[in-house]
Amino acid sequence: MVGLVAKVGLIGCGQISGKYLENAKRFEGFDVVAVADARLEAAQARAAEYGVPRALSVDDLLADPEVEIVINLTPHRAHYDVARRVLEAGKHPYSEKPLTIYRDDARWLLAMAGEKGLRVGAAPDTFFGGAWQTARKLIDSGAIGEPVGALANLHARPPSRPAPKDGEYVSFYMTDFLEYGGSWAFDRGPYYLHALINLLGPVARVTGSARKTWEQRERGGRVLPVNAPTHVSGILDFANGAVCQFLMTADVYATGLPHVEVYGTEGSLRCIDPNNFGGTLFLRKADSADLHPVEPEFGYTGNSRGVGVADLAAALRSGRPHRANGEMGCHVVDIVNAIHESSAEDCHVRLETTCERPAPLPPGLADWTIDP
Ligand SMILES: NC(=O)c1ccc[n+]([C@@H]2O[C@H](COP(=O)([O-])OP(=O)(O)OC[C@H]3O[C@@H](n4cnc5c(N)ncnc54)[C@H](O)[C@@H]3O)[C@@H](O)[C@H]2O)c1
To answer: Does residue 88 share a domain with residue 189?
Structure first.
């Protein structure tokens, strides 16, 4: 149970923290009262920019008795350790994607939270977006009939960036992208997988094939070894029977925008880039070859990162489940690892984790608010 306005701390004051802190001022139901970073000067700069009362060391933020929920915006490889420490401090962690790199770490967080009566939140929360809620309503109302399959693809060669100047902070995207846990499969994959789980439910079986196209690649002015696959492809058998082709690649040139498509017995639905909240959907019905544009019927069509935190705060107050939850984050980590394992071990992988579809948002919900 948290107070009427939940008191939130934020760890990791890098690039995306600005958007969270900007949006936090708009959401009802939570206030950011403290920020922290391994680089205290980064926390101090963000606190000054967004009027956050306290810029602290990580230890001091975790010991702050006012803080109830902690947003974890550290690099992927730090997610587990920071979330574990948040739980040890008796607070609820809400981590950016991926929840962890390895599935056992994710399961451990859930077990620890269960023992302590705490919640685990897991971004992305783009599936709260108006386009995704509209897609969910269309699918649930039978607009495409029974789901048969889906396609989820991201073709994105990362742009070359100049070498950092002396003393300049280097984003983890520069250092970790060619390591296991840093590629698009772990970084962007969760957007696609949370979107698909919202539409279709959990995955039961995974088959994968993954490769690296180069032994070395240029990142931020340096040539680095490629230590993990950067072209990652999977077939996901959903528990409801739908079969999805999933491709996250940094190795090819894009021929179109990233998107998700869902195919059913009575029609097909072309959805938006799952990194976004809003945009036009295109529905094709069985009786016509035309694609009919469908505009979002729900709010949250702009960049509303943080709505998952608002939802967690409301859920803690009322006792209902929160939507961007640790079970879904853990299942997504399991899926991405299973694709790599299937590829390396030449086999299908039947998943041991699962999750519920998050509850749809109520119609008419105003931006920056959430249902109790
Ligand atoms: N950049 C984006 O557009 C974006 C969008 C959505 C989500 N995300 C996610 O947000 C997270 C952060 O991304 P970013 O782009 O802001 O990264 P970043 O590299 O810009 O910032 C990471 C920050 O974490 C700090 N840090 C590193 N290890 C730490 C630790 N152990 N304890 C405390 N602080 C630590 C660093 O000093 C840095 O300030 C990632 O999980 C990423 O997947 C990023």
So the answer is: no
Task: List residues near ligand 1 (CB under 6 A).
Answer: 11-17, 37-39, 42, 58, 73-76, 78, 82, 96-97, 171-172, 187
| Per-residue pLDDT reduced to its tens digit, 101-123 | 999 999 999 999 999 999 999 99
Instruction: Judge if 131 and 264 occupy the same domain.
Output: yes
Number of domains in the chain: 2
Residue range(s) defining the domain that contains residue 238: 127-294
Q: Residue 120 C-alpha to ligand 1 middle, in angstroms? A: 18
d(CA 8, CA 32): 5
Average pLDDT, the chain: 96
**pLDDT tens figures, 76-98:** 999 999 999 999 999 999 999 99
pTM of the shown model: 0.98
**334-353 b/e with 16+ CB inside 10 Å = b?**
bbbbbbbbbbeeeeebebeb
